[in-house]
Amino acid sequence: MIAEPPSKVTDDGRGAMGLFDRLRGRGRGRPGRTRDDGRRGTLDRGSQRVDLTHLEQFVASRRGVEGYVEPRTAVTETTIVLVAADGEWTRRRIDGPGVARRLSRDLAIPVYDAQVTGYPQRMRDWSARQKQNRL
Domain ranges in the chain? Predict the structure, then answer.
């Protein structure tokens, strides 16, 4: 007679967590689950005050800065890419498009939807120059 494997039940009465359950939102208190505010979580950390401070300092220390909002994905929270007139850029997490609109107003910079407008050529040119300088 073959014995049946033990039941896969955890202490709290729920079934054992499978390999991909975290990503499907079945994990307990882990990335991928629904948050208290009803939004789905991601594998990424959320925005923090240090991120906003960095963005504010970037705008204050460079000229011609524009913002490009990138949507939240399953892996990354909403981000904003700031691009200066010379193409130098930085990317930081933000707590959604509303924060991007507030940054646009407070810092007096234009902000665009990166999915609609794409990124400026000067950003790609700056990145290529940085890569050449490292070689």
Answer: 9-36, 49-134
